[in-house]
Design brief:
The protein is an alpha/beta fold. It has helices at about 25-40, 60-75, 85-95, 105-115; strands at about 5-10, 15-20, 45-55, 80, 100-105. It has one domain (about 5-115): 2-Layer Sandwich (Transcription Regulator spoIIAA), CATH 3.30.750.24. The chain is about 40% helix and about 25% strand. Helix 1 (about 25-40) packs parallel to helix 2 (about 60-75).
């Protein structure tokens, strides 16, 4: 059995980091979307999703992440990912997420590049 997804939000002056833990499926994807849309509605233009504690993303989860990326692009912002497992990284490349969102190996590299240092 896969664990229910939990999302922790870390607000920064220049954006936000979402730390996920668990399975990104329809329920988990919606949880991420709800948090991301709240941040976007609050004016956040840069969101980093740290998937260090996420080992599985299914096709519905991928489609929800694509919707989040599209909405952020419409608002003139950007979404990035970091700390992906090799399987999730390859899946994101195959599904095209890597074409619209930067993928970083580490959170530190992402924070430096996105100006999200606290």
């Amino acid at each position: 059995m896969t664990e229910e997804l939990r999302v922790a939000v870390d607000r920064r002056p220049a954006g936000a980091i979402l730390h996920t833990k668990g399975y990104i499926n329809n329920v988990g994807g919606e949880e991420i979307a709800n948090r991301a849309y709240e941040l976007m509605d609050d004016g956040v233009k840069v969101i980093l999703l740290n998937l260090k504690d996420t080992k599985i993303v299914n096709s519905i989860g991928i489609s929800i992440l694509i919707e989040i990326i599209e909405k952020m692009m419409e608002k003139g912002g950007r979404i990035a990912f970091c700390c992906l497992t090799p399987v999730i990284h390859k899946t994101f490349q195959i599904m095209g997420l890597a074409n619209y969102a930067t993928i970083y190996d580490s959170e530190d590299a992402a924070l430096n590049d996105l100006n999200l240092k606290a």
